[in-house]
Amino acid sequence: MAINASKMELDTLGIRAIDDYTLEVTLEKPTAYFLELTAFPTFYPIREDIIEKYGDTWTINPESYIGNGSYVMIERNIDNNIIMVKNTNYWDYENLVPEKITFVLMDNPTASVAGIKEGSLHFSDRVPAQDIDTLKAEGLLQMVKRLGTYYYAVNHTNEVLKDGRVRKALSLAIDRNYIVDNIVKAGVPAGAFVPFGAPDVNGDFREVGGDYISVKPEDYQKNIEEAKKLMEEAGYTNGEGFPVLQFLVDSNREIPTFEAVQQMWKEHLGIDTSVSQQEWAVFLQTLYTDKNYVMGRSGWTADYNDAMTFLGMFLSYSPQNHALFTNKEYDNLLQTAMNTIDQNIRMDAMHKAEKIFMDNDVIIPLYYYATPTLVSPKLKGVVYDNLAKHKFSYAYIEN
């Protein structure tokens, strides 16, 4: 940041090319997930001379769109498709399978289904929600797990939401199984913040940590009773005296989930909510920059494969901390995890931090992401990635 602000010289960055094939990076402190970070698009190398010559248009034409990936662009038809072929300079060129990959630019989910069925498409994540069950039964749909969590953001400075009992009651009153099974028809009910898929010392971070909210269907009635009791303790028996909660969304697709939750809160807690919708850029400004909201829909997909990408968002000094949550012990535990490469120490500290996070109901997790994906039965060899960066380099069409 200091370099970007011209407060430090570029040569103090700690990065240098030793030779044509070796890059040396000097870190300020131990970073256990550094190699994971290098797979994030921010770290992809690009040529400075190309950027200086073409500016923001460098990705438009094949002659300027130069990278070091397994495939190179030979044709780009705006709003239609992108055609790529094998990169002869790629380190694993001999093992690349498709001679050519065509990426079709398409927003119409119905057209995606038609393309898969007629054979003009082989893979698409544009799926009509109303057809998910049918497509599953036809063997055309896969649920591709994603390292991410859909949640409701809560402003802790709000007069009623600063009461932890209210936040917990709102969370417990949500039937997450209903949301997953009947509304989004994808994902896994979330009993914590960090989703399944993040590694632990031995196994999976979520499996080791377990749930903080019971998402067993048979426990939902017990959750409701506890939620009612908490609201009564907070002075809002049957919702009496509770203000109308203002809820913020960014698109129409979020409305069905909100309306289901709205009904649950009304039925079980006696409270009313209203919803307002903002265009994406305005929504981001309101929720994440200005933090001028009461509650809103949110979600996070991992930047790198480590629990820190989730928990680090809510450090008291993090600009991403839209909850305005502050807890010194939480900060200290995450600092411990960030300043060592000993995974036993890191994971222990992050589990303790997540317990504080969930005990305080900093956010309201609803479900862990899974992406409904149309996949032709003929398509084989796709390497699925839980950060949604799937590899087609070794894929093939089975005749």
UniProtKB/TrEMBL annotation:
One of its GO terms (molecular function) is peptide transmembrane transporter activity. CDD domains: PBP2_OppA (cd08504). The keyword Transport applies. The keyword Signal applies. Residues 10-320 form the Solute-binding protein family domain. GO terms for cellular component: cell envelope. This is Oligopeptide ABC transporter periplasmic oligopeptide-binding protein. GO terms for biological process: peptide transport. Keywords: Signal, Transport. It comes from the Bacteria. Pfam families: SBP_bac_5. InterPro entries: SBP_5, SBP_5_dom. Its main location: other. It is found in: Cell envelope. Belongs to the bacterial solute-binding protein 5 family.
